[in-house]
Write a structure and sequence with these properties.
Helices cover about 45% and strands about 30% of the residues. It has three helices and five strands. With about 90 residues, the protein is an alpha+beta fold.
């Protein structure tokens, strides 16, 4: 499902216009992005949690030459599904 299909499905389910639904989806993604950028987390009970995961610096290898190289520490967004969502998917 791409963004346009998601907007259409959400608009149909909520009884809203596609324009209003697209604005709501954009607002949701903006709020989640800004909160994760600040290092916070968003918990939606029954659905899941959006949070930032810390990746430590480590040593890797260049796949072409096999030479060792440093991989810098970084942060990555992470989503952990809630119990209700897991149960729904596994049913």
């Amino acid at each position: 499902m791409n963004k346009a299909e998601l907007v259409a499905a959400m608009a149909d389910q909520a009884g809203l216009s596609k324009k209003d639904t697209e604005n709501a989806l954009k607002a949701f993604t903006d709020v989640v992005s800004n909160e994760l950028k600040k290092g916070g987390k968003i918990q939606l009970v029954g659905f899941g949690t959006f949070e930032v995961s810390e990746r430590a610096a480590r040593e890797g290898r260049n796949p072409q030459s096999g030479a060792p190289m440093k991989i810098a520490a970084s942060k990555a967004p992470k989503f952990k599904a809630g119990k209700a969502l897991k149960d729904l998917v596994n049913a």
